[in-house]
Amino acid sequence: MLLLAFWLILPYVNAAFLRKVQSKIKDLLQQMEEGLKTADPHDFSTYTGWTGLC
Predict the structure, then answer these.
(1) Torsion angle of alpha carbons 33, 29, 27, 47, nearest 10°?
(2) How far apart are CA 24 and CA 17, in angstroms?
(3) Which residues, if any, are the signal sequence (predicted)?
(4) What is the dihedral of CA 4, 8, 9, 15, to 10 degrees?
(5) What is the DSSP letter of 13?
(6) Which of 17, 23, 24, 27, CA to CA, is 20 to 30 A from 34?
(7) Cα-flanking dihedrals φ and ψ of residue 12, to 5°?
C-alpha cells in the first residue's frame, strides 16, 4: 500500500527535493565506500546497534 502511495505522489514531488534526496543518498554511499576501503580486513567485530543482539 505504501509503495502504491509513493508512485501516486511521485509526479508531484518537487524536482529540487528529489535532487536533494539523490545527493544525500550519493553522499551516504560514498561514506560507506570510504569506510570499506579503510576497514581492517582482519577485524571481524560487528556493530549490533544500541540495543545489542536479541
Answers:
(1) -80
(2) 11
(3) 1-15
(4) 110
(5) S
(6) 17
(7) -100, -5
